[in-house]
Design brief:
By secondary structure, the chain is of the alpha/beta class. Helix content is 38%, strand content 14%. It has one domain: NADP-dependent oxidoreductase domain (TIM Barrel), CATH 3.20.20. Helix 9 crosses helix 10 and helix 9 packs antiparallel against helix 12. The relative contact order is 0.13.
């Protein structure tokens, strides 16, 4: 398994990370993802470790804490062998302070996560979203205190806008506080908005990308094709309207290109889609999920090989969409503004 530095930090993480949103199935939304109990979760952790994947991602809001609890039990006795990533910010109770990134809520949330995980430190602690009502200085001072105390090793954010992240990095630099080493982002062959603003920022500021939903909210599993109904077992039946939206024609054009490359390589459609991400700038790790051991082993096989430059360019072209302003304008000035652009445009 290949390991990469997490952004500008000294921490090395595997290029694949196991996302444990499938642990627990504590409500209808997460049941659509999966509902692994402790026994199955322990087996899935075993499979990951055998493959060299020692990085596990969860969040307090996943099944209202149940995912963290099950992960904690699944890694019991081998905490020193794994890296744990978890998150806070989203609502975890009915009270007015049971959400957000205030000092009050962060300190409350991190202690609760530590209890559920059965550990005394978190390797990578994320803010799950940007809190526009709490001063950035309050947020980062609190996070820096957690790093200095040893309860948190590295900081990350998720789903931030470019200005959210850049302002946070600037404030951290101003005061000499711990900075965000990584940004957990939605990025896939059918969701390339990350490339417009956040990827250039990540290149410039050395912020590593941790990619969530790399198969386009379950649309790049290889089971969805032109002229065919949704498979009987698909989380899209219950969650399709909640995630990123794509038009049918665009989706099918990308799937057609994936099919071609999959046939050439002898790999599956999801393996090709995941491998494409592993070759993108800034990507430190791609978060894979799995309902069961078979799916997990299939996804783990996305690493350890590379698409050719020609295959990457073909997938780039099939999945390209017209960027919004000012990004389409900036692409006309690459002589002095060499932002990451698709390979076939170079």
């Amino acid at each position: 398994m290949e390991f990469r530095l997490l952004g500008s930090s000294g921490l090395k993480v595997p290029v694949l990370c196991y996302g444990t949103g499938t642990f627990g199935g504590g409500n209808e939304f997460f049941q659509a993802w999966g509902s692994s109990d402790v026994a199955e979760a322990t087996r899935l952790v075993d499979v990951c470790l055998e493959a060299g994947v020692n990085f596990f991602d969860t969040a307090d809001v996943y099944s209202n804490g149940l995912s963290e609890q099950i992960l904690g039990k699944a890694i019991a006795g081998r905490r020193d062998k794994v890296l744990i990533s978890t998150k806070t910010t989203f609502r975890m109770g009915d009270g007015p302070n049971d959400l957000g990134s205030s000092r009050y809520h962060i300190l409350q949330a991190v202690e609760a996560s530590l209890r559920r995980l059965g550990t005394d430190y978190i390797d990578v602690y994320h803010l799950h979203g940007f809190d526009a009502l709490t001063p950035v200085e309050e947020v980062l001072d609190t996070l820096n205190t957690l790093v200095r105390s040893g309860k948190v090793r590295y900081l990350a954010c998720s789903n931030f806008s470019g200005w959210h992240l850049m302002k946070s990095l600037s404030v951290a630099e101003k005061y000499g506080w711990a900075r965000y080493a990584a940004h957990q982002v939605y990025y896939s062959l059918i969701g390339r908005d990350y490339e417009w603003e956040l990827m250039p920022l990540g290149v410039d500021q050395k912020v590593g990308a941790l990619v969530w939903s790399p198969l386009g909210w379950g649309r790049l599993t290889g089971k969805i094709r032109r002229g065919q109904p949704l498979p009987e077992v698909s989380r899209l039946h219950k969650t399709g309207d909640m995630g990123p939206q794509v038009t049918d024609d665009y989706l099918y054009n990308v799937v057609d290109a994936l099919d071609e490359v999959a046939n050439e390589t002898g790999k599956t459609v999801p393996q090709v889609a995941l491998n494409w991400l592993l070759q993108r700038p800034t990507v430190s790790s791609v978060i894979i999920g799995a309902r069961n051991e078979e799916q997990l082993r299939q996804n783990l096989a996305a690493a350890g090989w590379n698409l050719t430059a020609e295959q990457v360019a073909r997938l780039d072209k099939a999945s390209e969409v017209a960027p919004i302003y000012p990004y389409w304008h900036q692409r006309q000035f690459t002589e002095r503004n060499p932002l990451p652009v698709p390979t076939y445009l170079k």
